[in-house]
Structures are given as structure tokens and as C-alpha cells.
């Protein structure tokens, strides 16, 4: 079984998120999503509309996702790859090169994001932030 992992906040879930998860799952048999906790988002100066439990419940209802785990900090990725026997680490292309150190543990792929949609764009258009 090929295990894939990806990370994110997944706030204001939209079709770009679904497309990323779909493409990630196509690369393997089991998709793990590490979801940023509310506390970690504060460290990153991010504010989510939905809290961690709500975002987790939404992700768990998506057919491409097999397991949702909490992401509590920047340094946990290497531990997660080992703990969950990950074969492939996938992130959006806007993170290109940021996680290349994981290549000694697993394959690393940066996929193109879905054009024309982002949570930031939605928030800006809805709330003017």
C-alpha cells in the first residue's frame, strides 16, 4: 500500500482543496491529511473561520481522505513521515523546494494548485480583508 501525506489549514473548504486532495490520492492508496490546529494557526498568524474540529469533520467526510491528524508545529513533518510509513509527501507548488529535506525519507512532489481559487481570495471577496 502506498501512503501519501499532505498538510494544510483547509479553511473555507473549496473546490481547489478538493482537487488537491483528489490529485494527492491518485498518487497512492491511502491519504493522510495533517490539519493545522487552531493553536498552530495562531503561531503562523492565520485565523480560520472554522475551528479545528469543524475543519477535521469536513475533511473526514471527503472520500479521498483516509485519515486526518493534527499538525501542531513546523517540525513534525519528519516525525509524521516515519510514524505513518509515508511513501509520498505532496504539497502545492507554492511551497516548491521548502520540504526537499524530506527526500531522504520519502518521495516529495509539489503539485500545481487549482487556478482561480484560494481561501485568501474568497476571504478578500467576501469580507474585504
UniProtKB/TrEMBL annotation:
What gene is this protein translated from?
A: tagD_1
Q: Which SUPFAM superfamilies match?
A: Nucleotidylyl transferase
Which keywords fit this entry according to its UniProt record?
A: Nucleotidyltransferase, Transferase
MF terms in GO: glycerol-3-phosphate cytidylyltransferase activity; metal ion binding
- Gene3D superfamilies this protein is in? HUPs
Please list the residue ranges annotated as the Cytidyltransferase-like domain: 5-124
This chain's protein is named: Glycerol-3-phosphate cytidylyltransferase
Q: InterPro entries, alphabetically?
A: Archaeal_FAD_synthase (IPR050385), Cyt_trans-like (IPR004821), G3P_cytidylTrfase (IPR006409), Rossmann-like_a/b/a_fold (IPR014729)
Signal peptide span per the entry?
A: none
Broadest EC class assigned to this enzyme: transferase
- This entry's Enzyme Commission designation comes to 2.7.7.39
One Pfam family name is CTP_transf_like
For this record, an example GO cellular component is:
cytoplasm
Q: Which GO annotations describe the biological process of this protein?
A: teichoic acid biosynthetic process
- Asked whether the keyword Nucleus is assigned, the reply is no
Amino acid at each position: 500500500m502506498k501512503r501519501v501525506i499532505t498538510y494544510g489549514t483547509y479553511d473555507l473548504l473549496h473546490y481547489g482543496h478538493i482537487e488537491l486532495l483528489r490529485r494527492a490520492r491518485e498518487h497512492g492508496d491511502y491519504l493522510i491529511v495533517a490539519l493545522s490546529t487552531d493553536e498552530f494557526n495562531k503561531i503562523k498568524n492565520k485565523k480560520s473561520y472554522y475551528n479545528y474540529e469543524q475543519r477535521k469533520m469536513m475533511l473526514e467526510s471527503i472520500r479521498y481522505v483516509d485519515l486526518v491528524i493534527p499538525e501542531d508545529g513546523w517540525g513534525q513533518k519528519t516525525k509524521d513521515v516515519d510514524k505513518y510509513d509515508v511513501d509520498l509527501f505532496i504539497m502545492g507548488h507554492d511551497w516548491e523546494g521548502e520540504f526537499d529535506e524530506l527526500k531522504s525519507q520519502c518521495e516529495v512532489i509539489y503539485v500545481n494548485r487549482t487556478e482561480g481559487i484560494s481561501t485568501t481570495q474568497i476571504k478578500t471577496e467576501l469580507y474585504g480583508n
